[in-house]
């Protein structure tokens, strides 16, 4: 039976500067995937940050059940990538124009180079299939689109 991985009931952030207009009522079931979309300033980041515990609650409750994970911490079980994170550590030595400079591409690592090896082959295959990564493994990191870069980071 599927269970709530993250559940918040009537959540209100303690800090009035980061409160949403209404209390948060939210649940994410096991097996569900979430994309939060909306216009600038709508509260997308505040919602996610509150759900993930960045802002302590004044009212309401939040619960996490990451089973069967060995650890129950949000840090170990949730990957949150914002647009500004897409251009961080993975490509810190590159700039946008380098995508078109062939001589710079020679030294750039591929997605496969940066992903490295793992002992858990079954998990690797499951994740590669989920994110359709096989087609990206031989692609240079500086040639990834912003969407491909986000998939790589996940």
From TrEMBL:
Annotated ranges, domain ABC transporter: 22-153
Gene3D superfamilies: P-loop containing nucleotide triphosphate hydrolases (3.40.50.300)
Keywords on record: ATP-binding, Nucleotide-binding
ATP-binding is among the record's keywords: yes
Translocase is among the record's keywords: no
SUPFAM superfamilies linked: P-loop containing nucleoside triphosphate hydrolases
Organism domain of life: Bacteria
A molecular-function term among this protein's GO annotations: ATP binding
PANTHER family cross-referenced by the UniProt entry: SKFA PEPTIDE EXPORT ATP-BINDING PROTEIN SKFE
Name of the protein in its database record: Molybdenum ABC transporter ATP-binding protein
Higher taxonomy: Bacteria, Pseudomonadati, Bacteroidota, Bacteroidia, Bacteroidales
């Amino acid at each position: 039976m599927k269970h709530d991985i993250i559940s918040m009931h009537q959540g209100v952030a303690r800090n009035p500067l980061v409160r949403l207009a209404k209390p948060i009522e939210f649940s994410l079931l096991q097996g569900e995937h979430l994309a939060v979309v909306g216009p600038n300033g709508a509260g997308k980041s505040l919602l996610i940050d509150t759900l993930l515990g960045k802002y302590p609650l004044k009212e309401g409750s939040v619960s996490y059940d990451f089973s069967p994970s060995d650890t129950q911490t949000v840090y170990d079980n949730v990957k949150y990538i914002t647009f500004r994170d897409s251009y961080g550590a993975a490509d810190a030595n590159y700039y946008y124009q380098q995508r078109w400079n062939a001589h710079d591409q020679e030294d750039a690592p591929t997605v496969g180079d940066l992903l490295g090896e793992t002992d858990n082959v079954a998990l690797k295959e499951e994740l590669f299939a989920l994110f359709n990564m096989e087609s990206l493994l031989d692609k240079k990191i500086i040639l990834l689109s912003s969407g491909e870069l986000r998939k790589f980071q996940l």
